[in-house]
Amino acid sequence: MNERKQVIVQNTVTKGLNPEVEMKDSGDEWLGQIPIHWEISKLKQILSPISIKDKTHLPLLSITREKGIILRDIENMEENHNFIPDDLSGYKMIEKGQFGMNKMKAWQGSYGISEYTGIVSPAYYIFKLIKDINPEFFHLAIRSKIYVPFFGKASDGVRIGQWDLSKSRMKEIPFIIPPLEEQERIISYIGQAPFFSRNHIIEKIKP
How many other C-beta atoms are found inside a 10 Å radius of the C-beta of residue 204? Predict the structure, then answer.
């Protein structure tokens, strides 16, 4: 997305669609003012870690900065810089609608809700949503420009380009939650905006 699109998505997922709504202080300087009736939570109250392995029959997925979670083209050597072992039994399963993170590149935005069921590197973090949040809204919001810096603040490292995410600090990252009806209206608004194809972010998460 270009800068204008990023700003529109960021403002919508943190301020809502009603410019006249009463606002309150979020308690975080980066998030600023939010609608008075919206909830502010922490990721530890939204995400529950899971680790299911030995699902080698499932397709291999990648977690990228540009597109989130995608099917991995194992035949394309240019895109497969990382070694793929013969034994994939240690790889983690992620189901459609779950949240996956490349913990070494979370500070770049390499995470998202998956639209596939498959397996990813055992080094990645996998979570299920445990709060009443539309997965598509969570994906749009957490990948917006305002949230990415939180993951940089929660990461450490000495090698350029690979900072390890601290799970304990990640759990403390704040997240703004509108009522479900508003989440759905925001998803619809962004999806119907003339500049924006919903498929550019994620296809509708279906049950």
Answer: 12
